[in-house]
């Protein structure tokens, strides 16, 4: 497999890490008296969870390529990542409702 796929995943990981860093700065600078408005809470929660999922999704295949044959890499990556992504999406949907 060519490395360009893993280069693209690395760029996604960098963007996700930047998004999570922005979330941390937002938390520090906008937190008043230990509470957020409901809209801010949902905004920050969605940013943190989405950034974490993208970071995980983009790093797992690159890490597994060293221990798995190419024929199993994407199947195993998806099987490991899908439950995390699904549970995160369901949690966000429930919280946003």
Helices, strands, pairings?
Blueprint: H1 4-30, H2 38-64, H3 70-96
Helix pairs in contact: 1-2, 2-3
Outline:
The chain has 97 residues and is mostly helical.
Task: Summarize the structure in words.
The chain is mostly helical. The longest helix has 27 residues, at 4-30. Helix content is 84%, strand content 0%. The model has no long low-confidence stretch (mean pLDDT 81). The chain has helices at residues 4-30, 38-64, 70-96. The chain is built from three helices and no strands. The chain is elongated, with a radius of gyration of 16 Å.
Structural class based on helices, strands and sheet pairing: mainly alpha
Gyration radius (Cα, Å) is 16 Å
Helices, by number, come to 3
Q: Termini distance?
A: 42 Å
Averaging pLDDT over every residue, what do you get? Answer: 81
Q: State the order of secondary-structure elements, H for helix, E for strand.
A: HHH
The percentage helix is: over 70%
In one word, what is the shape? elongated
Low-confidence runs? none
Largest sheet features:
none
């Amino acid at each position: 497999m060519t490395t360009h796929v893993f280069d693209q995943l690395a760029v996604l990981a960098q963007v996700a890490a930047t998004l999570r860093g922005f979330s941390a700065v937002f938390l520090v600078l906008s937190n008043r008296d230990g509470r957020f408005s409901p809209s801010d809470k949902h905004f920050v929660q969605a940013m943190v969870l989405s950034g974490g999922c993208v970071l995980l999704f983009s790093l797992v295949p690159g890490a597994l390529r060293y221990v798995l044959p190419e024929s199993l890499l994407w199947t195993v990556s998806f099987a490991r990542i899908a439950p995390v992504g699904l549970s995160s999406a369901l949690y966000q949907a429930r919280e946003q409702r």
